[in-house]
Every structure is written in C-alpha cells, then in structure tokens.
Design goal:
CATH topology: Arc Repressor Mutant, subunit A
Number of helices: 7
CATH class: Mainly Alpha
Number of domains: 1
Shape: globular
Order of helices and strands: HHHHHHH
CATH architecture: Orthogonal Bundle
Largest sheet: none
Radius of gyration: 14 Å
Distance between the termini: 26 Å
Strand content: under 5%
Structural class: mainly alpha
Helix content: over 70%
Length: about 140
Amino acid sequence: MGLFDQIIGAVSGQQGESGGSLLGSVLQMVTNPQNGGLSGLLQTLQQGGLAEAAKSWVSTGQNLPVSAEQIQSALGNDTVKNLAAQLGLNTEQMSGHLAELLPQIVDKLTPNGSVPSEGNLVSMGMELLKGKLLG
C-alpha cells in the first residue's frame, strides 16, 4: 500500500461516509502507478472508445458526459466489478458513479489542460480529496 493509499484510507475513515470511500477508491484507481496512473487510465478510456470524452476532460473546455454503460465497456467488467466489491455496490451502481465522478476528477487533476507529473498528481489528488471530504 502506497503513501497516497494510506492517506486516502485515513481521511476516508475519519469521515465514515460512503461518498468519501467512493471518491477515495476512484482517486486510487486514477493515481495507481501499477495501472499507469492518470495517463494509463486515459489511454484505457481512449482505447475503449471514449477518446473524445477523455480528451474533453483533460482540456480546459466543457467536459463531455459519458454513460454508465460506456464507462463499464471502456474500463472493462473486471475493473468495475472489483471497485464495486470494495465498496459494497453492484456493478451498475459503480458504473453510474464512475460516469459521474471520472469526468470531474480528471478535469480537476488536469486544470491546465495537461496531465501533471506523478508527484503533482498525488498532491492534487489530496487537495481534491480534502476539499470534498473536509470542506
């Protein structure tokens, strides 16, 4: 477990709310170096047919929406199922949450229209998590 995972767990545990756990889990997925971090996630989404939507989330313009079905298809059933199991949700609920959260999270983590370095990404993720949970 990395430092970022430990911090998210601590902050999420302090809050004791499912929204915090959900946000923490999604941020872990976005920043997980084993999956290529944010760049890897964007590549997966692009290869899964969401290239235009993912590009809009990184750019400084309007974010294009995606459906739960599109997210599940792009990320793969196993990824969505694993996240859902961690949070005690079914895959349909998790896909819906991902469709809502991923555009916002990617947008917030790429405020200048480019993917930040891993060190900056962790820092930005923590600021996002603090703002959502503690603000």
